[in-house]
Predict the structure.
Amino acid sequence: MAYLAEASKPEPPPASLTIGIDVSKDHLDAARHPGGDTAGVANTRKGQSALLRWIGDVKAVARVVFEPTGPYHRALEERLASCGVPMVKVNCLVPGFDGAFFSLEWKEALWARFTTEAPRRQRQSVE
């Protein structure tokens, strides 16, 4: 006796990419994991379009992570949601932190250390 089996559709690969976005008033700086690719765009509708092209297939994205930054993240959040991109908003881990804990001298020393010891990354515009 013969049995006919339906051809099974291959399962799509699980979403495996994580995109982290640093949101500021003027720029969106993004990094992809795994891979380490980075991109920088203006925090405008045109920049968001360029960022979505850089992200590529949203079905491969497990999550886009960003910190809510007052009014500057809202347009990005709405745009990602309208495209069906899974998002995670991560609040600062230090309650009430606004950068005022540290003196200007301390911040400048920290920045100087970061910029001299951190690997140099060039902002790669994708616009």
User: Anything to note?
Assistant: The radius of gyration is 20 Å. Residues 92 and 98 are 9 Å apart (CA to CA). Confidence is low (pLDDT under 50) at residues 1-5.
